Amino acid sequence: MATAAVKEHEFAWEGTDRKGERVKGKTQAANENLVKLQLRKQGINPIRVRKQLALFGKRKKAITPQDIAIFARQMATMMAAGLPLVQALEIVGRGHENPSMGELILDIKGGIESGNSFAESLAKHPVYFDDLFVNLVDAGEKSGTLETLLDKVALYKEKTEAIKKKVKKALTYPAAVIVVAFVVTGILLYFVVPQFQSLFQGFGADLPAFTQFVVGLSEFVQAYGVYMVVGIGIAFMAFFYFKKRSRKMRNFLDRLSLRLPIIGTILYKSAVARYHRTLSTMFAAGVPLVEAMDSVGRASGNIVFEQAIRQVRDQISSGTQLNWSMQQTGLFPPMAVQMVGIGEESGSLDAMCAKVAEYYEAEVDSLVDSLSSLLEPLIMSILGVLVGGLVVAMYLPIFKLGQAI
């Protein structure tokens, strides 16, 4: 039965060292008695210990995948330097910039001190440490090569997070600019156009068709704008709710996303890169191929690939070669299949998969840069048409009035 993590507080202390000199500092502990015990172990005679009270409660920061990647790299570095596991966790946990991540690391340390293995302590936090992370750590502990496998985990996390950032950049940049463009247009239609509309009413002349259209659009936004905003908000909430809970919807969206122009290519190549990066890491750690495919499938980030990888696993378990099984799915590019085949024949599958991953990671990087260069003039054109069109529509009657005078 797992025990709940003990909440620790910050204490300020003063005392004397072995030479009789006064020293002071701060430390984290569950209570005052534990602080005194820690100080005595360090040869310090505590004189005064007081709990630090914050005037304003600190807002906890969320633990991000980047935090996990940094944690893996820190542990790999410290283990390679020869530090004991518990001491390394203590140093990383106490010094972490994110208090939430620091608490998580210290909780893992507590699990190890209570008799669990490192892998078992990590497995108690599945939200942050997936099966791949836990399996590799477990393999490292059993084989006595924990520092080597932690280095592989760190490299894997760094590479996968880097490619995720590139994909997010490709998706969020154009979407954010277009959203801003429509927000600006909505503000102009709701607040600015009505001012011109009251001015036009004093002209006593028919407005140009384009101006009439914009005025009519402004009246519609004023009448139904609030309902539109609420409806769009509800639609987005419903979309994300069902996307998170409905596998059928995720299947549909993942298949649709792979068919999108340019964006689909980026998502496809990033999934291929993640597949080969994960496979290389698992195989290099000595995890059996059939067993590794479960973690590989979940790490692909796309249900289409997850289903294909499950099919590959089933064929491998019946004795089929990996490259032939991949080819049968019709999902993997020929170059990747050939490289995997060469790796199987030469006994260097992990190295070949790593090369394939590096190739497609570079491809994704190049595509994201190209997409950004392509979208910048397109986005500027959209902004120009939306905002510039409204400005022209508002000043067109004034120009025509000036020509009439």
TrEMBL record:
PROSITE patterns: T2SP_F (PS00874)
Bilayer topology annotation: Multi-pass membrane protein
Keyword check for Transport: yes
Organism superkingdom: Bacteria
Transmembrane spans: 171-193, 224-242, 378-398
Alphabetized Pfam families for the sequence: T2SSF
InterPro entries membership: GspF/PilC (IPR003004), T2SS_GspF/T4SS_PilC_CS (IPR001992), T2SS_GspF_dom (IPR018076), T2SS_GspF_sf (IPR042094)
Stretches assigned to the Type II secretion system protein GspF domain: 71-194, 277-397
Residue stretches in coiled coil: none
Keywords assigned: Cell inner membrane, Cell membrane, Membrane, Transmembrane, Transmembrane helix, Transport
Family in the record: Belongs to the GSP F family.
UniProt cross-references to PANTHER family, sorted A to Z: GENERAL SECRETION PATHWAY PROTEIN, PROTEIN TRANSPORT PROTEIN HOFC HOMOLOG
Protein name: Type II secretion system F family protein
Organism placement in taxonomy: Bacteria, Pseudomonadati, Pseudomonadota, Gammaproteobacteria, Nevskiales
